[in-house]
Amino acid sequence: MDTATPTDSRLARRLQGLLHRTRRNYAAGHDRPLGGYLVAMAGFAAYTAAWTTAVRRLGRPLPERPEPWDVVLTSVATFRLSRLLSKASVTSPLRAPFTRYVGPQGPAELHEEARPEQGKHTVGELATCPFCMSVWVATTLTGGLLLWPRPTRTVMGTLTALAGADALQLSYSVLVKATEAPAEQT
Prior knowledge:
This protein is mainly alpha-helical. It is built from 7 helices and 2 strands. Strands 1-2 form a two-stranded antiparallel sheet. A hairpin with a 5-residue loop joins strand 1 and strand 2 (110-114). The model has no long low-confidence stretch (mean pLDDT 91).
């Protein structure tokens, strides 16, 4: 039984027209998945609401302000986990359904592009963008700090140690190249 009125149908058509014009005017001839971005934003809002609900239900108090050490630890851990999830070779099977391999990009990292198919493009962009991924990771780590502070700090400490180890590995490589370059010139 259809209970839609002619006014409802006209409103729906007008909204569709407005959305179509907005998408066309915004895109400037490019294929921009605004609908996918809206879904991703709604998904993130739901994800954040779920963390908020869990914190409230368990009666966890919010701190007056973040502790500076937790902010530093969260920042470094977010950086490392975001790169691990969005760029590392070893996590490519997680991204493969939504991306296409292009080639290597830096030590143990890959350059991948989002698949153009509808429904995969937005997820592919999110999965290959460490900046985009960091919003989700920081939210997860912050929620973890509120609900399970000790295990979360342990995980963040591990990720921070990995980031430090990466920096040392890269620094070592630069030093080795610098010491080999003068020897090759003589």
